[in-house]
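Example record

The entry below shows one chain as it appears in the dataset: sequence first, then structure tokens.
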Amino acid sequence: MSTHETTRSAWEDASQKHMREYAEHLEQARTWRLLPVEEEVLGPLLPGAEVLHPQSGHGLDDHALWRLGAASVLGLDYSPTAVAAAQRRADELGAACRYEVVELPETGLDGGIADVVYTGKGALIWMADLDAWAREMHRLLRPGGHLFVLEAHPLVPLWAWDADVARVRADRGYFAPSHVNDTFPARGAVEHQRTLAELVMTVQGAGFELQHLAEHPEPFWRPDGEETAAAWDGRLPNTVSLLARRA
């Protein structure tokens, strides 16, 4: 089995939790909010916008985008289980969110269909061809549309989660092309690594104008049952946010 198929299989298995936790997610969706930096950067762009959310996962962020004024949200994910759960939830709550099973980077969608592409919280690390992804997002946006990214900082793969002191993992490197995931979804899934410079230059190279780039000490995700790690005490970067405009 290829690394791609191993990763896809791991995510399909992991997506079963969206069904097991459906009732909990349904209640969360009623009041779910984006992170403060997301609301600050995206808020002015959302009223009346048609939003595209590649790698939409459980889809809870889509409800937050809709409540912030988005006219509609189209979520794309390669897990049929995740798509089915997200669509069922949106239908039950009457949210203007719909979902399609799509395997990136090529979507098969018409060009120029979105005002905003929202990519959030652990998506790009699963994308093997980031150049092709950036070109496709550019194609899907209308002229003047915006690409927003909120991701784990590229240094995060190096941080050990020890509670006493921040440490760099001996088995990871900043310039490594990939590593095997050992948290979630695990099961041999492969994460693709890029430096911060690679992320920025890829976006710009696809025809975007950078408007916002910031590094943040707070992680957007903490594994269940783990103690607070010293790497999360505010001294190290754990998240990066980016906003770029299609020229």
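Notes for this example: The first helix runs from residue 3 to 14. The radius of gyration is 17 Å.
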